[in-house]
């Protein structure tokens, strides 16, 4: 799923509705390398509160990213627990510029919203582990796989 019609929600007496939506997430480039979500999709827990013609959308989901470690280039798996908030009034996103418009005419672009929320939740570096030692700047050996004290003779 990439788009969701907010008008399809059936609100209870407390003007709240919930949906779990499978959302496809395209791979993206971060730091020059491509990363993807395991399975190509996340399960978005969407909570919607309504006051008049104003909707407050809360997103929550877990994403496991896969791609190269930015230090040693081995496989990295990065787990993210992501949350986001979006306000929609009279069918249009409120509070952001054009880059933050996820709803138009009550159609929510969940694919783009989820992808942007993942991007905003990324750590500064995507690593295979917090103790990754990276690559040797002289020979390119993976320092995680070499014995401690890996050196080169000056010559």
Task: Tell me what you see in this structure.
A hairpin with a 2-residue loop joins strand 9 and strand 10. It contains one helix and ten strands. The chain has one domain. Strands 2, 3, 4, 5, 6, 7 and 8 form a seven-stranded antiparallel β-sheet that branches. Strands 1-10-9 form a three-stranded antiparallel β-sheet, with no helix packed on it. The radius of gyration is 21 Å and the shape is elongated. The protein is mainly beta. The mean pLDDT is 89. The protein is 8% helix and 43% strand.
SSE layout and pairings?
Blueprint: E1 4-5, E2 16-24, E3 28-30, E4 33-37, E5 41-51, E6 54-68, E7 75-89, E8 92-94, E9 103-104, E10 107-108, H1 110-121
Antiparallel strand pairs: 1-10, 2-5, 3-4, 4-6, 5-6, 6-7, 7-8, 9-10
